[in-house]
Amino acid sequence: MADPRSGQPVPTAALAAFAAETRYEQLGPAVVRQVKRCLLDFLGQVIGAADEPALRHAQAAVEALGGRPQALVFGTGLRTSARQAALLNGVASNSLDFDDTHFPTVLHPTGPALSAALAVGEWQRVSGQELVAGFAVGFEVECRVALAVHPEHYEAGWHITGTAGTFGGAAAAGRLLGLDAQRMRWALGLAGSQAGGVREQFGAMAKALHVGNAAANGVFSALLARHGFDATEQIFEGRRGFPAVASSGQHLERLVDGLGQRWEFEHLGFKPYACGVVLHAVLDALLQIRTRHQPAPEEVERIEARVHPLVLELADRPEPESGLAARISVQHGAAMTLLDGACGASQFSDQAVQRPASVALRRKVALTADSSLGEDQAEVRLLLRDGRRLEARVEAASGSPRNPLSDQQLREKFHDLVWPYLPRWKEERLLELIERVEELEDAGAFADLLEPTESA
Amino acid sequence: MADPRSGQPVPTAALAAFAAETRYEQLGPAVVRQVKRCLLDFLGQVIGAADEPALRHAQAAVEALGGRPQALVFGTGLRTSARQAALLNGVASNSLDFDDTHFPTVLHPTGPALSAALAVGEWQRVSGQELVAGFAVGFEVECRVALAVHPEHYEAGWHITGTAGTFGGAAAAGRLLGLDAQRMRWALGLAGSQAGGVREQFGAMAKALHVGNAAANGVFSALLARHGFDATEQIFEGRRGFPAVASSGQHLERLVDGLGQRWEFEHLGFKPYACGVVLHAVLDALLQIRTRHQPAPEEVERIEARVHPLVLELADRPEPESGLAARISVQHGAAMTLLDGACGASQFSDQAVQRPASVALRRKVALTADSSLGEDQAEVRLLLRDGRRLEARVEAASGSPRNPLSDQQLREKFHDLVWPYLPRWKEERLLELIERVEELEDAGAFADLLEPTESA
């Protein structure tokens, strides 16, 4: 794994060997626990997204093309090729804007890696331990690729989940297809030629396609490599490799430093609100104010929020035109929090965007950028007609790594998402499968349970 | 199509309307003639690539996934989904390095647009005139996208056929799926999120995947848009659109200037040699010297070539490790030209690379960069043991737009490629179908003819 001249590790070779050869036993209990939280959070979202237009439209396109029934689309019951199942589950995982976040890079890592791992795992009927290991190495690879190009790559306008995620999808799928380290290098190389997605898509369905493509193109990369289709063996360190081409800054040491010793799972946060993570600190603050003071919406004269500059760049949208666009509107999120005391999926429907009370409150939001604040921090002040000023400051948004959701909170989020779609017994059985995933002989058990049946 | 404030054309809207609405009658005879030359050249290559490992391995991956039998893979007889047929035909079209070139940008435009057009055209059973129109608009769109980011985008390390080609695939497929201008905007937007490919892959099979993906992801973009999956409507002019994100220089006026009046077909060149276009001027010069003087290979002491600097950047490979790598080795191309007096597909086989006479001659090549020369120019001097110096200067490489191949030369190239795979009657019938493509009621006639049958 070391360069014979410099003695330095060669990143592509090192990551490929890590992905191909890390055993389940090497993961350790903290990683396995976090993997189960990812599984819970992911499955809640892909089931809860069943009626999302992005998923429905993408599924219609996939059904027109056909494919072997290798893996389940969890929200809809379609069985299609592993590549296409990974695509549709990836689209579903992002289309509620409720998916987890790798805080150092704003990558949403579970969607690409777990969509790929579950689809290939079901197809290949791997064990639960292999599923966990496959997802874990995929997750780690994509986070490290993201770190290697952050922040320049994201700042240039790339959607890092679409780009870095493809390497995670390839690593997870390659692992579960049994690639050796040599073919894993090709798979990572092929991922580097299939990675894409620009931030101009934020607010459109195409954003969720980036996540689906990261998973699906990862699967295809691994499958091509398995069949002998070769690629550069230096996708990371090569002069025209992915970091050099797609980022003005490269930090390749982050690909390998401490690889296998420390895991990026510790920098992961799960979302309490169904919207862009940059909104969350503001919503936390407003929820605190609402709980403490119960201000009547019609009494609110002005909502002042001091936030990290990225919040304004990404989410300053006073007039979102749809539920999708509203998920990155701090104005809409603030309005709905004050009105409903919650910001789940139903607060970001197309109907919610049209509610007159929301429209009125959105116009009262005044944002100020403050670079002394972190992305997970905010200061909010509510001015009421009677002259009162209600204030709250959030030091670490709920769901951020510094203020993580509890297992109980994650189960409540899961229940809120799945109850319209799953009978209670299936929900309970699913929780049980997740809890003892490492004991499963066949990782296809998730799909077998969730496949629609007459009796369901 | 014009911005209401500035009065300037809005590029995405203008290109979408052009792709959706240009009628066959508006193409004019020069465009139709060039389309037929593209069809001939493309079909020769995809049939002649039947035994290429890149195609075989990619096909194995595709067959593992399955798909409806909508369109033919010309070289192998597989029928699969339109997306996957476009992928495999695109891979085939590039894997002999014999595909045509848009000289202003080094884009290989026919592969992406025609792979997409033929697959969707067969699936949808469009007319011959529609096929011609669909390919023509796809070709024009991708050339203009390439012009809009050239040269900065290519210089940064992007493989422009993989990136710009995706827009061409989407425009061609969208046209043949009957998208209106609105949905065509989404299709172009989706193409911008699926475009990729880095030059680090040159010399590996992954390079041809870029061409296949451009076609296949173009088809998928169009299909998604057809089913209502939306995307940014400003993929070109948006602040985080494709040109802004993937190129340090943007030339958006080239997207629309003279659109529909002049066509980029006039800047297209067809290859006389089965290798990177940057080698061609050198090979021309050596062929002239060989024809004139018949030097014995063992008499050659040194081969000096002055070339455009890009030739050294891309193709200075004295020890290519495979036939694939040899296609961008000016040393190997020069050696084979002197040895065989030809540089077709068989001069770039893995066996040819191992020939002792080729290995010996390759080591005698000395390259000098000279930026006063164009990419289609070269000066070559052969030094012989007896002291003779044989020289030739090429002002415009054969196959370049300034020195185009004749129809007869294209037919000979076609024959050399297809004769091992097609019985003579099929070859003749295929030439006839190409010649009267505008009279065909069903563009699927190409696939119907080329589908393997017992009697073939």
Chain-wise SSE layout:
Two copies of one chain form a homodimer.
Chain A: H1 11-21, H2 29-48, H3 53-65, E1 71-72, E2 79-80, H4 82-95, E3 101-102, H5 110-124, H6 128-149, H7 152-156, H8 160-176, H9 181-192, H10 206-226, H11 242-246, H12 253-256, E4 268-269, H13 280-293, E5 300-307, H14 309-315, H15 323-326, H16 330-340, H17 350-354, H18 356-362, E6 365-369, E7 378-384, E8 389-394, H19 407-418, H20 424-435, H21 445-450
Parallel strand pairs in A: 5-6
Antiparallel strand pairs in A: 1-2, 3-4, 5-7, 7-8
Helix pairs in contact in A: 1-6, 1-8, 1-9, 2-4, 2-19, 3-4, 4-5, 4-10, 5-6, 5-8, 5-10, 6-8, 8-9, 8-10, 9-10, 13-16, 16-18
Tell me about this structure:
- The structure is a homodimer of 456-residue chains.
- By secondary structure, chain A is of the alpha+beta class.
- Chain A is built from 21 helices and 8 strands.
- Chain A has helices spanning 11-21, 29-48, 53-65, 82-95, 110-124, 128-149, 152-156, 160-176, 181-192, 206-226, 242-246, 253-256, 280-293, 309-315, 323-326, 330-340, 350-354, 356-362, 407-418, 424-435, 445-450; strands at residues 71-72, 79-80, 101-102, 268-269, 300-307, 365-369, 378-384, 389-394.
- In chain A, strand 7 (378-384) and strand 8 form a beta hairpin.
- In chain A, helix 1 crosses helix 8 (160-176).
- The termini of chain A are far apart.
- The model of chain A has no long low-confidence stretch (mean pLDDT 96).
